[in-house]
Amino acid sequence: MTDKERQEATAVTTSPYESDALAEGTVDAVVIGGGAAGLNGALILARSRRSVVVIDGGSPRNAPAEAVHGLLALDGTPPSEILRRGREQVRQYGGRVVFGQVVAAEPAAPSADGDLRFTVTLADGRSITARRILVATGVKDVLPEVPGLAEHWGHGVVHCPYCHGWEVRDEPIGILATGPASIGPALLFRQLTEDLIYFTHGTDLDEDSRARFAARGIHVIDTPVTEVVNDKDGALAGVRLADGQIVTRRVLGVVPQMQARTQGLEGLNLPVQDLPTGRTFASGIAGTTDVPGVWVAGNVTDPVAQVGASAAAGALAAIEINKMLAVADTDAALQS
User: Fold this and answer.
1) Could you report the per-residue pLDDT of 178-218, keeping only the tens digit for each?
2) What is residue 48's three-state secondary structure?
């Protein structure tokens, strides 16, 4: 961990939610990250009568969004409300949700019967011992360094046609390319509007893609974008090009680089995978990893998963964790 990362992790902040006391002794599982994947995993474990503690820093990836969409029965619900309900449901079954930043997570000496142990340390110096760990820390979206772009993230600047598409239908939309991964989303956003411009922004666009865009009426502009411009009310109004021209747009679609939140997890030595859109933790079926006793779920391993898919991944990982704990409990009983 760099000095800057350590300073950020140890910064004193106020919990955005009511925090439980950190459990004492050894718990069955610590879930690092309290988003959809982490809370749903904790819910499954708590309902299985496992002692589970969620450590969450209170900065979910979808915080800038006004609502979650495409989630059955909860479509249109603010992300903060979904998380609030999730925390309460975990607590209903005896789970704990603790506000804090993890600065270290690493294997510890096994128990007397040979079962795995891990130590998780928080920025304020508190620590907890767990038999198993579920990592659900999510990703950080890294936007192109275009002045004015970041301030509209989650509103006028969006990344997912399924998360935000209906809300921006029929608007003049621009796709700010960040690489080949931007081509597919352009075709998806074209489904939502007839007024779509693809800004190559210095990236190569092959002739086949240009022909396909032309066939769908997608206009291509190769002049680099230098700035996002606003209207008098502060809303996104368009982009300024390197030649000074302003192209009017109400919405920009951007595929950001998505980097797994790995801060404090270096001691687990989890394998990573490099994807066209960023770097995440590698995982197998049900979130298994190459590190015994550690699972991953949600955007930290699948950066394009929506809330529903992340929640499902957390549940699948938790089911597998509970199975492995049951096996360990039985092995210990045989030794006694």
Assistant:
1) 999 999 999 999 999 999 999 999 999 999 999 999 999 99
2) coil
* Residues 6+ away with beta carbon under 8 Å from 226: 146, 147, 239, 240, 241, 242
Provide the sign of the torsion angle of the four alpha carbons 224, 230, 231, 235, taken in this order. Answer: positive
Closest C-alpha to 332, from 21, 28, 24 = 28
Q: 3-class SS at 233?
A: coil
Q: Could you report the per-residue pLDDT of 142-156, keeping only the tens digit for each?
A: 999 999 999 999 999
Same CATH topology for 3-140+257-335 and 144-254: the answer is yes
Helix (H, G, I), strand (E, B) or coil at 45: helix
Q: Is 175 helix (H, G, I), strand (E, B) or coil?
A: strand
What's the CATH class of domain 3-140+257-335? alpha beta
The secondary element (H helix, E strand) that includes residue 227 is strand 225-230
The answer to whether 249 and 279 have CB atoms below 8 angstroms apart is no
- The dihedrals phi and psi of 296, each to the nearest 5 degrees, come to -130, 150
Residue ranges of the domains in the chain? 3-140+257-335, 144-254
CA 37 to chain centroid, in Å, comes to 9
Q: Which CATH class is domain 144-254?
A: alpha beta
